[in-house]
Write a structure and sequence with these properties.
The protein contains 9 helices and 9 strands. By secondary structure, it is of the alpha/beta class. Strands 1-3-2-5-6-8-9 form a 7-stranded mixed β-sheet, covered by helices on one side. A two-stranded parallel sheet has the order 4-7. The radius of gyration is 17 Å and the shape is globular.
Length: about 240
Amino acid sequence: MTISHAVTGEGPDLLLVHAGVADSRMWARQVDELKSSNRVITLDLRGYGETPLAPTYSDAGDVLALLEELGAKDVTAVGASYGGYVVQQVASRRPELFSRLVLLCAPTDNVQPDDELRALWGEENALLEAGDVDGATELTVRRWIGPEADDEARELLRVMQKRAYDVQLAAGDVDNEEWPVEPEKITAPVRLITGAHDFKFFADSAIYLTERLPNAEHINLPWAGHLPTLERPTEALALITG
């Protein structure tokens, strides 16, 4: 099954892969601007938005299959958080498909989460095990978006995270095959963006990648939390396109 996706505009291929607390709707404020000069590809990974889960699947495999189905080439790929991790997997396997990567607060292999993030995951799991989906959703809104976000952005995050919980909890146990991230094989220029208000794990991941990618730059945003495209949409747009 092809994952739910949308293609708008004409021009060079631009792929947007959402965060693990969101879905393709997180890019809504950017797509209208981007589609004037790009063929913009947005998608919902399995268990998010309009794409149901499957017992076994591969997010990286799904994204690669979609790009091949669309005949995409010289792709600029923008990945937020977990979406950035998926982009790294695909670019490690098929580096020739990509002309540029932008990774927003993305994790990577071989970097360990910090204690604060582990504690947050523990709190989230406890709420979900107690059946308090609303409480877990509010925890996401409180901890995963920075101080610059407006009420509209916070409400959108609330809706997207609640949808993900509903789909994923109903599906039960699943198996997502992850591909190895091999930074040395990623030949495209990579812009790594982190936020000063985010968890340390994501800055550590960016530093690790900067030291290993052939062509990388790291930009740390003093105003940003984990989701800069929701927090300052216009400023984040310039970081994607500039």
